[in-house]
């Protein structure tokens, strides 16, 4: 069996790294040594921030809900408490989407929650 050389796989690895570094600034997009480091760091940031994004969206939903329920003379915490008392299990994402896209439906939910209190 002939000895296999690493020319093709090596070239493929280098191409993948440079493809991942496309759009980077300066030599980080074209110099393999710099691109390798930049791509590694970018991967670490992407991994960490995928998790941070979940918390950021929850914060956004809570802020939107608080603003929406203030129009009905409630605070966010009172609203969530009354939701649990009324046995209504709609998550914050759906509630925030209702408040933005369908205010009438959100008003109905708030009215039902207030009636249970």
Automatic annotation (TrEMBL):
Instruction: Quote a single Gene Ontology cellular component term.
Output: ribosome
PROSITE patterns noted in UniProt: RIBOSOMAL_L20 (PS00937)
Q: Which CDD domains match?
A: Ribosomal_L20
Positions the record marks as coiled coil are none
Q: Which domain of life is it from?
A: Bacteria
Q: Which InterPro entries does this chain map to? A: Ribosomal_bL20, RIBOSOMAL_L20_CS, Ribosomal_protein_bL20_C
**Single biological process term from Gene Ontology:** ribosomal large subunit assembly
In alphabetical order, the GO MF annotations are: rRNA binding; structural constituent of ribosome
Segment forming the signal sequence: none
UniProt keyword annotations, A-Z = Ribonucleoprotein, Ribosomal protein, RNA-binding, rRNA-binding
Concerning NCBIfam families, the annotation shows: rplT_bact (TIGR01032)
Functionally, this protein is described as follows: Binds directly to 23S ribosomal RNA and is necessary for the in vitro assembly process of the 50S ribosomal subunit. It is not involved in the protein synthesizing functions of that subunit.
The family this protein is said to belong to: Belongs to the bacterial ribosomal protein bL20 family.
Record-given protein name = Large ribosomal subunit protein bL20
Task: Give the species this sequence originates from.
Answer: Hallerella succinigenes
């Amino acid at each position: 069996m002939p000895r296999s050389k690493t020319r093709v796989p090596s070239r493929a690895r280098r191409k993948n790294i440079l493809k991942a570094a496309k759009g980077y600034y300066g030599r980080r997009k074209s110099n393999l040594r710099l691109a390798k480091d930049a791509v590694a760091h970018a991967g670490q940031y992407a991994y960490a921030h995928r998790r941070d994004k979940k918390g950021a969206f929850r914060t956004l939903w809570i802020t939107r809900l608080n603003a929406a329920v203030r129009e009905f003379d409630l605070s966010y915490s009172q609203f969530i408490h009354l939701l649990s008392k009324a046995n209504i299990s709609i998550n914050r994402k759906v509630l925030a989407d209702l408040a933005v896209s369908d205010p009438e439906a959100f008003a109905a939910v708030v009215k039902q929650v207030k009636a249970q209190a």
